[in-house]
Amino acid sequence: MAETIRVLVPEKEVDKRIEELGKKISEDYAGKQVHLICVLKGGVFFMCELAKRITVPVSMDFMSVSSYGAGTESSGIVKIVKDLDEPLEGKDVLIVEDIIDSGRTLFHLMKILKERGPKSMHICTLLDKPERRVEDVKVDYVGFNIPDEFVVGYGLDYAQKYRNLPFIGVVEGVE
Ligand code: PRP
User: Fold this and answer.
1) pTM (2 d.p.)
2) Residue 71 contacts by C-beta under 8 Å, 6 or more apart in sequence?
3) 128 pocket-lining for ligand 1 (C-beta < 6 Å)
4) Could you tell me the distance, in angstroms and rounded to a whole number, from the CA of residue 34 to the centre of ligand 1?
5) What 8-state DSSP symbol labels residue 108?
6) Which residue among 8, 55, 58, 171 is the one 20 to 30 A from 89 at the CA level?
């Protein structure tokens, strides 16, 4: 059976929620500059949309990590594939993710980045699967809590496809 995509969160709802998050972040960071860190690749769509809705000064940097191990489970041992271009010292850092699942990636990434001396460090994710959590990470801004289903769109892929979907979907019809 060919795979199909079922809409879980329609585009309008995603847009509305990102707008709300942008407003909240703008209030919380009033008088400050927020330094957004995008964890590639999945975080890039969300970060761009979020950044457009933040009204305090924004700077951005990008990094790419891989966790050792194959398949859909992350091992939690984070290897930096592409590091940030700029130092974090003294910055109000907001890490932007597309999804938090076991929490392993962020748990280890936070440890690495905190050693670089940011003034503050918080987490914003579009999607959260709290029931899957293995590591205790404190998530400050969540777009949507979702059930444990295989989701794609808005940066999330299935075999590198579907990242460009403007909504959150569930892949069906795959083994
Ligand atoms: C996803 C997501 C997080 C991580 C979450 O990235 O963007 O970084 O997995 O999983 P965890 O909470 O269980 O650690 P992925 O490794 O799929 O890379 P990609 O964004 O390049 O697709």
Assistant:
1) 0.93
2) none
3) no
4) 23
5) H
6) 55
Q: What is the CA radius of gyration of the chain?
A: 16
Please name the residue that has the structure tokens 């990008």.
Answer: 62
* H or E element that contains 19: helix 11-28
Q: Rounded to the nearest 5°, which phi and psi values hold at 132?
A: -95, -5
What confidence tens digit (pLDDT) does each residue in 12-44 have?
A: 999 999 999 999 999 999 999 999 999 999 999
* 101 included as an active-site residue: yes
> In angstroms, rounded to a whole number, what is the distance separating the alpha carbons of residues 135 and 107?
7
Read off the tokens for 122.
Answer: 């918080």
- CATH classification code of 11-149: 3.40.50.2020
Distance 51 CA to ligand 1 centre (A): 20
Cα 38-99-22 angle, rounded to 5 deg:
60
Q: Are 80 and 108 in contact (CB under 8 A)?
A: no
